[in-house]
Every structure is written in C-alpha cells, then in structure tokens.
Amino acid sequence: MELDRFDRQILQILQTDARISNQELADRIGLSPSPCLRRVRVLEESGLITDYRALLDAKALGLTLMALIHISMDRHTPERFNDFETAVAKIPEVLECLLITGQAADYQLKVVVKDLDAYQELLLKRITGIKGVSGVHSSFVLRRVVDKTAFCVTG
Question: Which residues form the signal peptide (predicted)?
Fold first, then answer.
C-alpha cells in the first residue's frame, strides 16, 4: 500500500492518541472529516492498523517486577518450536515472546509479575515445565529507559 503524507500523519497521531475524535484528527492533518474517516477505514482494512488498545500502568496494578528470560530449546524442530509457542502464548504474565538469533538462546520472553516470589512460581512451575525447554537465563529490568509503542511512519 502506498502511503501519502495524510496517511502517515494519521498513523503517527493514532499511535499516540487512539481516542482522538475523527473531527480533531481531520483538523490536525488538514482534511475534512469525511475523507479523513475514509482514510482511517482503508488503513484498518489494509491491515496497517491492526488494533486499538489501552496501555496500563503495571506498577499501579501491583506488577512491580519485569524480567527478560532467554529460553534455550533442546531440539530445533518446527514441532518443538510450535509446541513451545502455543504453551507460552497461554501464560498471561508473558507480554512478549520473540524467536531470536545471535544468542545462546532461542527465545526471549518479557514478563511482568508482582514480585520475586511470583516470578519464581512462574518460572519453576510454568515456563521450565514446557516440553523442550533446556535452559533459562533471567535478567531483571531495573528501569525502562525507552518505552515506546509507536513506530516512526513519517518517512
């Protein structure tokens, strides 16, 4: 899909304020409301806009510990990877699961839990119990330095 400056502006604004009204969005990019809404619908239908979400404050919810977990698998087969990915997708504390290269690990998980006890339970009772997990290395996040959800689409 070819994006023009209006499409790029719409994408940039919606990434930081998905609750903006169509009228305000149209005003900010210099279009009338009807063509602006049509453009947003096309961006949604094309799959460039995949979802709208609320971002929550983990600490305010009592989730004070974030960890990055590197997972090594015992075998590198499509079935083993698929089984792991299916299992880890069912764990609500897992915010992100990335299949990675360039490390001794095969996956990197980002998890958020209440505290160290909750982390220990998650790790020992649920993650290491997934068939094929042969190694785990954990790092705890001390501070988020950059924490974005928006892509740069200004071209």
Answer: none
**pTM score:** 0.88
* Amino acid letter, residue 2: E
Q: What is the DSSP letter of 22?
A: H
Which pLDDT value is given to residue 1?
83
Q: Kindly tell me if the per-residue pLDDT of 109 is higher than 80.
A: yes
Maximum alpha-carbon separation in the chain: 57
Structure-model confidence comparison of residues 154 and 38, the more confident one: 38
Q: Report the C-alpha gap between 120 and 123 in whole angstroms.
A: 5
Instruction: Assign 143 to helix, strand or coil.
Output: coil
Residue 151 lies in a domain: no
Span 59-89, pLDDT tens digits: 999 999 999 999 999 999 999 999 999 999 9
Q: Which domain holds residue 104?
A: 59-140
The conformation of residue 18, written as its DSSP 8-state character, comes to: T
Tokens coding 80? 């083993």
Same domain, 22 and 70: no
Task: Specify the number of domains making up the chain.
Answer: 2
Angstrom distances, CA of residue 116 to CA of 19, 58, 89, 121: 35, 15, 21, 9
